[in-house]
Specification:
The complex is a heterodimer of chains A (about 325) and B (about 325). With about 325 residues, chain A is of the alpha/beta class. Chain A has a domain of about 70 residues. Helices cover about 35% and strands about 20% of the residues of chain A. In chain A, the strands form 2 sheets. Chain A has a 6-stranded mixed β-sheet with strand order 5-6-7-3-8-9, with helices on both faces. A 3-stranded antiparallel β-sheet of chain A has the order 2-1-4, with helices on one face. In chain A, a hairpin with a 2-residue loop joins strand 8 and strand 9. In chain A, helix 3 runs parallel beside helix 5. In chain A, about 45% of the residues are buried. Chain B has a single domain, classed as 3-Layer(aba) Sandwich (Rossmann fold), CATH 3.40.50.300. Chain B is about 35% helix and about 25% strand. In chain B, the strands form 2 sheets. Chain B has an 8-stranded mixed β-sheet, sandwiched between helices. Chain B has a 4-stranded antiparallel β-sheet with strand order 2-1-4-5. In chain B, helix 7 links the parallel strand 7 and strand 8. In chain B, helix 3 packs across helix 4 and helix 6 packs parallel to helix 7. Classes of the chains: A alpha/beta (about 325), B alpha/beta (about 325).
C-alpha cells in the first residue's frame, strides 16, 4: 500500500486564552490554555474524501488549518507527502480580495508558485474558470459582481490553480443556499474524478458529508471519537455521540413524527470534563468513563463500545 | 384565523427605480398551527415577517396589502399602537439570540420587565411568573440562572431565554425568523421541539421562517414556499414535501442532501441550473421560467397565480390544464 498523502500523529493545538499579564498578576491567576485539538491521529489517503464532522468548538476548523500548514501543532506531528496543499474557506465573501479582479485572484498562485510563464497565465486562468463553470470574460469582473455560489466557484478555481494534491475544504457550502450547495458539491465531485484530487472536507452537516465522503471522522471537544468508512458510519454508528448526532439531524422523511431530542450541550472547552469528555451527556457512562479517557481503538474511542456494553441491533 | 396576510407587497424605492421584494403574498395561520415559510436567500421570506410586524425599515415599505390579527386590521395602526401589539400579542424570535438580549441586564430583570410592561404583574406574582416561564422553555436551575447575564448562557440556552421573552406576554402569534440557524444540530432539535410544544400546549399560532427544509419537515403543519418575492406553493407539509407541485419546490427538494441515502454510497445531487434572479431583473411571466425544465410558451409571457394542484396550491401553469378539464 502506498504511504498516505498526509498523516497526523497525536496532534494537539493549544491556544493561550489567558487574561492580560497585569490582570493575572493582580488577581493571582495562572495562564489558561484552551486545547482545541487533543491528540488526534489520522491519515488522509490519496484520492479519497475524508470528512471531519462535529459541532461548533469541536476543533474541526483548527485541525483543517493545521493540515494545510496555516498553523503549527503544539504537540504531535503532521507529515504531508505531496507537493502542494490548498484551502477553500467557508465564506466566499471574506476569502476573496474585493479590490482584485477575478483574473488576478485566480492567477496569484500561478505567479507566486511560478507554475506558468507570463504569456501562458491568461490561457491557464481561462481554462481554470471554465473548469469551475465560469466564463473566461468573468475574469475581468470583481468579486462583488458575483453571487455566493459563483464566488465559491472562484475560490475553487484559485485553489486549483496552485495544482494541489490535497484540498482542505472548511465548510465550503455552509454559507450557500441548498440549490447552490448542490451545484458546488457536484462540481467538487466532478473535479475530484477528473483531476484525481484528495479532499479533506470539514463540515457540521452530516447530510452533506454522507453525500461526498469516503471516510468520516467524528470530533468532539478536540478529540476524534470515531473514524469509519462513510457507509459504515451512517448505517451502523458506534460511538454514542455519533448516534446522537445522526439522531438529531432533521429528516424530511420523518415529517411530523415525534421524537425525543438529545439533552445537553457541548461543555465549555476551557474546562472539559475528566475522563471521556462526552460522559456528562452519555446514556452509557459509568465510573470508568468519568475517570479514564478512552483511546481510539478499532476506530472508536468509547469504553462502552470496547467493553461490549452497547448493542448494535438496529 | 389568528393571522391573515392579504396580498402583501413590499417595495424598496431606490434611485434606479422601485424594487419589489415581496409581491402579492397571501396566507393565514390558525390557532395552534405552525406555518413554515421557506425559501432561499433573497426570496422575501424575512421581509414578509417584518412586514407583518410593521418592522420594515426605510426605504422598504408595505406598498399594498393588509395584515389582520384576530379579526383586527393592524397594518395601518399608528406606531405606538403597533408597538403595543408587538410583544403583547405578537412574540418575535430572531436568528441571533445575543442581538435580542440586553447585555447589561440579567435574564431575570429582562423577563420581569417584559411581564410587568405587558401584563402589569408585580411582586411575588411577577417573580413566580418569570420563573415558571424559564422552566417552561427548559432552562434548568431557573432560580439560579435568574441572576445571570446573557453572556453567561450558551447559544442554545440564550435562544430559550429569547423564546421565554417572546412568550412572556402570552402572545397569540409567534414569529420565529431562522430561530435554529445559528445553533448546532443537537441544540437545534431541542429548540424545534420547544416551538412545537408551545404551539400545541398554548395554542399559539406560529410563523416559522427558515431556509431549512428539514426544520420545516419536523416542525410545521403547513408550508409556504417562496421564490423571487412570490409564493409559489402552499399546502400541508406532507403534501408539499413529498409530492411537490411546483417545479421549483421539486428541484429544491431534490437538491437537499439526505443522510438516509448514505447506505447507497456517494451519489450526485439533483441540481437546479442557474440562480435566483436579482430584484432588478425578475423575468416576465413566471419568475422561475428561465431555470424551469418544464417551461412552455405561456410561462414566459403571463404570470401564474396560485391555483389548486393536487392537495396543495401552486403558482404554475402546469396545473392550469388540470383545472380546465374539471
Amino acid at each position: 500500500m502506498r504511504a498516505p498523502l498526509l498523516s497526523a500523529e497525536a496532534v494537539s493545538r493549544d491556544f493561550d486564552v489567558s487574561r492580560p499579564w497585569l490582570d493575572r498578576v493582580l488577581e493571582g491567576e495562572g495562564r489558561r490554555l484552551l486545547r482545541a485539538v487533543d491528540g488526534v491521529t489520522l491519515e488522509v489517503r490519496r484520492g479519497e474524501t475524508l470528512a471531519l464532522v462535529g459541532e461548533s468548538g469541536c476543533g474541526k476548523s483548527t485541525i483543517a488549518r493545521l493540515m494545510v500548514g496555516l498553523d503549527t501543532p503544539s504537540g504531535g506531528r503532521i507529515e504531508f507527502r505531496g507537493q502542494r496543499r490548498q484551502m477553500i474557506f467557508q465564506s466566499p465573501y471574506a476569502s476573496l480580495n474585493p479590490r482584485w479582479r477575478v483574473h488576478d485572484i485566480v492567477a496569484e498562485p500561478l505567479r507566486v508558485l511560478r507554475l506558468a510563464r507570463k504569456a501562458e497565465v491568461g490561457g491557464r486562468v481561462a481554462q481554470l474558470l471554465a473548469q469551475v463553470g465560469l466564463a473566461a470574460e468573468d475574469g475581468e469582473k470583481y468579486p462583488h459582481e458575483f453571487s455566493g455560489g459563483q464566488r465559491q466557484r472562484i475560490s475553487i478555481a484559485r485553489a486549483l490553480s496552485g495544482e494541489p494534491d490535497l484540498l482542505i475544504c472548511d465548510e465550503p457550502t455552509s454559507a450557500l443556499d441548498v440549490s447552490v450547495q448542490a451545484q458546488i458539491l457536484n462540481l467538487m465531485a466532478d473535479l475530484q474524478s477528473r483531476l484525481a484530487l484528495t479532499y479533506v472536507f470539514i463540515s457540521h452537516n452530516l447530510a452533506v458529508v454522507s453525500q461526498i465522503a469516503d471516510r468520516v471522522g467524528v470530533m468532539y471537544l478536540g478529540r476524534l471519537v470515531e473514524l469509519a468508512p462513510a457507509s459504515l458510519l451512517f448505517s451502523r454508528p458506534r460511538h454514542p455521540y455519533t448516534r446522537m448526532l445522526l439522531e438529531a439531524v432533521p429528516q424530511i422523511e420523518r415529517t411530523g413524527e415525534p421524537r425525543t431530542p438529545v439533552a445537553g450541550e457541548v461543555p465549555n472547552p476551557l474546562a472539559p470534563p475528566p475522563g471521556c469528555s462526552f460522559h456528562p451527556r452519555c446514556p452509557h457512562a459509568n465510573e470508568r468513563c468519568r475517570r479514564e479517557r478512552p483511546e481510539l481503538l478499532d476506530a472508536v474511542a468509547c469504553h462502552a463500545v470496547q467493553e461490549g456494553r452497547i448493542s448494535f441491533a438496529r | 384565523m389568528i393571522l391573515q396576510a392579504k396580498n402583501l407587497r413590499v417595495e424598496f424605492r431606490t434611485r434606479r427605480g422601485t424594487l419589489v421584494a415581496v409581491d402579492d403574498v397571501s396566507f393565514s395561520v390558525a390557532r395552534g398551527e405552525v406555518l413554515g415559510v421557506v425559501g432561499e436567500s433573497g426570496a422575501g421570506k424575512s421581509l414578509t415577517g417584518l412586514a407583518i410586524m410593521g418592522l420594515l425599515e426605510p426605504p422598504g415599505r408595505l406598498a399594498a396589502g393588509e395584515v389582520w390579527l384576530e379579526g383586527q386590521r393592524i397594518d395601518q395602526l399608528p406606531h405606538a399602537a403597533l408597538r403595543a401589539i408587538r410583544g403583547r400579542r405578537i412574540g418575535v424570535v430572531f436568528q441571533d439570540p445575543l442581538g435580542s438580549l440586553n447585555p447589561l441586564f440579567t435574564i431575570g430583570e429582562q423577563l420581569e420587565e417584559t411581564i410587568r410592561t405587558h401584563l402589569g404583574l408585580a411582586g411575588k406574582e411577577l417573580r413566580q411568573r418569570a420563573l415558571a416561564l424559564l422552566a417552561e422553555v427548559g432552562i434548568p436551575a431557573a432560580q439560579e440562572r435568574f441572576q445571570h447575564y446573557p453572556h453567561q448562557f450558551s447559544g442554545g440556552m440564550r435562544q430559550r431565554v429569547v423564546i421565554a421573552l417572546a412568550l412572556a406576554a402570552e402572545p397569540v402569534l409567534l414569529i420565529a425568523d431562522e430561530p435554529t440557524t445559528a445553533l448546532d444540530v443537537s441544540v437545534q432539535a431541542q429548540i424545534i421541539a420547544l416551538i412545537k410544544r408551545v404551539a400545541r400546549e398554548r395554542g399559539t399560532a406560529v410563523m416559522l421562517i427558515t431556509h431549512d427544509m428539514g426544520v420545516i419537515a419536523e416542525t410545521a403543519d403547513r408550508v409556504a414556499v417562496m421564490y423571487a418575492g412570490r409564493m409559489v406553493e402552499i399546502g400541508a407539509v406532507r403534501d408539499v414535501l413529498h409530492a411537490p407541485r411546483h417545479p421549483y419546490t421539486a428541484g429544491l427538494m431534490a437538491s437537499i442532501p439526505r443522510v438516509a441515502a448514505a447506505g447507497a454510497g456517494r451519489s450526485r445531487l439533483a441540481q437546479i441550473e442557474g440562480a435566483m434572479p436579482r430584484l432588478n431583473a425578475i423575468p416576465r411571466g413566471c419568475p422561475f421560467h428561465p431555470r424551469c425544465p418544464q417551461r412552455f410558451e405561456r410561462c414566459m409571457s403571463s404570470r401564474p397565480e396560485l391555483m389548486p394542484a393536487g392537495a396543495s396550491q401552486a403558482a404554475c401553469w402546469l396545473h392550469a390544464s388540470a383545472i380546465a378539464q374539471r
